[in-house]
Write a structure and sequence with these properties.
This protein is mainly alpha-helical and 283 residues long. The protein has a single domain, classed as Glycerol uptake facilitator protein (Up-down Bundle). The chain has helices at residues 6-21, 25-50, 55-58, 61-81, 85-97, 103-130, 143-159, 164-185, 191-207, 213-226, 233-264, 272-282. It is globular. The model is unreliable at 271-283 (pLDDT under 50).
Length: 283
């Protein structure tokens, strides 16, 4: 099959957004837990492969390695199937703009998905990153010491090295790119095509040091669990708030609204009776 054209991608995105809302709360939470865990897996492998690379020797290449491997997270989300808040910030509001959903549907879905993402990311951070010893502590030796130092560098940069305005703006740029990855994956009709569409935008946002709220739900708690000094839950919560707000702006303003205006604004959405009947038709 040939790739979808942009207008077809927009139509597919609105249908996907409607389907994400048309599920029971428990299914949404389970799906979101998986996505949070998948993004955390991406963060964990990114730390592992980029640890021990001295910037004086490697320059900025460690950030490239981090970005290239972090793409695993969104590949798992989109190919295996799960609900990631940053992607839903595009798909669900777009469905509302097209008249398929209400604002209450958007708020309910994003709240449930953020909660599920948080639990999934915390689970991987505590049990699979720190408790396994993959991420060491200040007294660790060998590879565990290297992963501890790499995690500490990332977490300190995000929690302590950015002003609130910088965090917000980095989050805007992050989810602009993440949502473009989700958007372009809709053009592909093969698994390999979807992975290729995902790779470059995700690699780019990580390499540039942008802030992804769900990724930070892994990096910052993992640093706290590993005993990285000077990082507390107050810094973490502030980062999540700013990153979440910036991610929402990046998704809604720069991707959902832009493509709704270009491809869906003049296309009538479903009438109320049709919208009410759609959940049964979608199964």
């Amino acid at each position: 099959m040939t790739a979808r054209q942009p207008k077809e991608m927009a139509q597919a995105a609105t249908a996907m957004g409607a389907k994400k809302v048309d599920r029971s709360w428990d299914r949404v939470l389970v799906s979101a837990f998986l996505a949070g865990a998948y993004i955390a897996f991406g963060g964990l492998v990114a730390i592992t492969v980029s640890s021990g690379l001295d910037p004086e020797t490697w320059g900025t290449l460690p950030t490239l390695f981090t970005g290239a491997t972090f793409t695993l997270g969104l590949v798992l989300v989109l190919i295996a199937g799960s609900d990631l808040a940053t992607g839903n910030m595009l798909l669900v509001p777009l469905g509302a703009m097209h008249g398929r959903l209400g604002l209450g549907d958007v708020a309910r879905n994003l709240t449930l998905v953020l909660l599920g993402n948080l639990v999934g990311a915390l689970f991987v951070a505590y049990f699979l990153a720190v408790q396994t010893g993959v991420i060491g502590d200040a007294d660790a030796a060998g590879s565990a010491a290297l992963t501890y130092e790499r995690l500490a560098s990332i977490a300190e940069g995000k929690a302590l090295g950015e002003s609130p305005w910088q965090t917000f703006l980095r989050a805007v740029g992050c989810n602009w790119l993440v949502c473009l990855a989700v958007w372009m994956s809709l053009a592909a009709t093969s698994v390999s095509g979807k992975i290729l569409a995902i790779f470059f935008p995700i690699m780019a946002f990580v390499a540039m040091g942008f802030d992804h709220v769900v990724a930070n739900m892994f990096f910052l708690p993992a640093a706290i669990f590993a005993g990285v000094p000077d990082i507390g839950w107050d810094d973490t919560l502030l980062n999540w708030l700013l990153a979440g707000a910036g991610n929402l702006v990046g998704a809604v303003v720069f991707v959902a609204t832009s493509y709704w205006y270009l491809f869906l604004r003049d296309e009538a959405g479903p009438s109320a009776p049709e919208a009410a009947a759609e959940p049964a038709e979608r199964g």
